[in-house]
Amino acid sequence: MVFPSLAAAYAALFAGLYAALSFWVVAGRFKYRKLHGDDGGQGDFGRRVRAHANFIEYAPLILILVLLYEASGGPRGVVHALLGPLFAARLAHPFGMLAPANSPRQYACRGLGTLVTFIVLLAAALLLWLRVA
After folding, report:
1. Using an 8 Å Cβ cutoff, are 85 and 78 in contact?
2. CA distance 106 to 96
3. What is the DSSP letter of 1?
4. How many CB atoms lie within 10 A of CB 5?
5. Residue from 85, 90, 86 nearest 18 by CA
6. Residue 74: what are its φ and ψ, rounded to 5°?
7. Four-point Cα dihedral 63, 58, 55, 103, nearest 10
8. Which of 49, 101, 108, 109 fits 95 for a cystine, CB–CB 3.0-4.6 Å?
9. Interior CA angle at 91 toward 40 and 105, to 5°?
10. Range with the lowest mean pLDDT among 37-46, 59-68, 116-125?
11. Which contacts of 124-129 are long-range, i.e. CB under 8 A and separated by 24 or more positions?
12. What does the DSSP assignment read for 55-99?
């Protein structure tokens, strides 16, 4: 077993992004005076909460898959190919969440961010399965 140093470095980057999303939600709690819950997803604050929640719903599982892939001897180039686009996708997604409905920015940031996330999730799962099967 190899220590997954590259995936670990990416995990640190993802932790920084998660912290930024968390601070963004906390700032929204003060701005909109929402100490509990959200606004039902109807406004800016609800979109902040969903962007934060969406990140935590996908990023940890994908990181675990890629960490295990690298630890099992998977090539570092593949780790970069999975986590680089995933980081860009997760970074773009919140900008798409705040974009006007059906706008080019919504499709480019949110839509593409979601698509890349799903592709990386499935690719990481398949690559890990093929590696250990």
Report:
1. no
2. 4
3. -
4. 12
5. 90
6. -60, 145
7. 120
8. 109
9. 70
10. 37-46
11. 124/62, 124/65, 124/66, 124/69, 124/82, 125/65, 127/69, 127/74, 127/78, 127/82, 128/65, 128/66, 128/68, 128/69, 128/72, 128/74
12. HHHHHHHHHHHHHHHHHTT--HHHHHHHHHHHHHHHHHHHHHHTS
Q: Let me know if 78 is exposed, middle or buried by CB neighbors in 10 A (0-12, 13-18, 19+).
A: middle
Is residue 52 scored above 80 in pLDDT?
yes
Q: What is the pLDDT of residues 54-90, one digit of tens each?
A: 999 999 999 999 999 999 999 999 999 999 999 999 9
52, 45 Cβ separation under 8 angstroms: no
Q: How many residues does the chain have?
A: 133
How far is it, in rounded angstroms, from Cα 121 to Cα 99? 25
